[in-house]
């Protein structure tokens, strides 16, 4: 998680520095209004303009100021709880840490609690499931890398939890620490299905799909973004895997600065993992082999080996090639933990 800490006063600047020094579980970048800035911060003149510039670039925005100022700054940019960054407000005295947007999926509630512990402050979490210590489908999905396919169904599950109704569970993946609100008994009116198949085991079913696909990509030097994008999307479509399930991109380290590949990662918000040729050659599995590729790169297959190396799992899509690009996909093995937290 990458967080922007925004301050508009001297006390706020001092508090932002405390946060920067104490927080080690997320990457923190400080933004201080020019009148109260220092060498370790980035300056801004107008808070509204700043928020416009950074809204889509950070996982969390932490405002050290009055709540009204923060709300006015973020209001024009709020779109959806599934895409908006976490937003937190802290008073300049460092007494209260208040999550105001994307509490569950964005992780604002969890981040507020962690920050309050570090600052010796009070976290003011207001969402009903958190207050009562109940299961939250939003938080569970976010912490375990699951895609919520229907927000209305997610709301129905949360409402049922609060009303004391038992929630059914059918999962194609191993689950641990299942809370008392959840049952694996089939006779429930509402429940969760975790998997990739077209199943509706309950009258009201919230389907959660794992985001656990790693794409291995190889390409010739100078390959443009379009060639990569076309082959990736075609390969995923033919395998009936939605792009939303892709979690990471993997390749050989000599491609870490490949412009087309970097553009692809930026477009889809994906992290690029790179590995040395020797690491890839030592990866175990049944891979296709090319003497030409090995002569050029030092490894006989970049896409399949990097996908398996990064995922630690099995290949779902074997090597596909077109226009100087090779693509493969592997699935990460996962265990779903109902007690796992976002941070």
What secondary-structure arrangement, pairings included, does this model have?
Blueprint: E1 2-7, H1 10-22, E2 27-33, E3 42-44, H2 47-54, E4 60-64, H3 67-74, E5 86-90, E6 96-101, H4 108-119, E7 122-123, H5 128-131, H6 137-143, E8 146-148, H7 151-162, E9 167-171, E10 174-176, E11 182-183, E12 190-194, E13 204-210, E14 213-219, H8 225-238, E15 246-252, H9 259-268, E16 271-275, H10 277-281, H11 291-297, H12 303-311, E17 314-322, E18 325-331, E19 335-337
Parallel strand pairs: 1-2, 1-4, 2-3, 4-5, 6-7, 9-11, 9-12, 10-19, 12-13, 14-15, 15-16
Antiparallel strand pairs: 5-6, 8-13, 14-18, 17-18
Task: Please report the distance between the alpha carbons of the first and last residues.
Answer: 8 Å
Record the strand order, biggest sheet. 3-2-1-4-5-6-7
> What number is the mean pLDDT?
93
- Total strands: the figure is 19
Outline: globular
Q: How much of the polypeptide forms β-strand, as a percent range?
A: 25-35%
- The percentage helix is 25-40%
Query: Which structural class do the helices and strands define?
Result: alpha/beta
Radius of gyration of CA atoms, rounded to a whole number: 23 Å
**Low-pLDDT stretches:** none
Biggest sheet character: 7 strands, mixed
How many individual helices? 12
Structure explained in plain terms:
32% of the residues lie in helices and 28% in strands. The protein is of the alpha/beta class and 343 residues long. Helix 9 links the parallel strand 15 and strand 16. Helix 8 packs across helix 9. The chain is globular. The termini are close together.
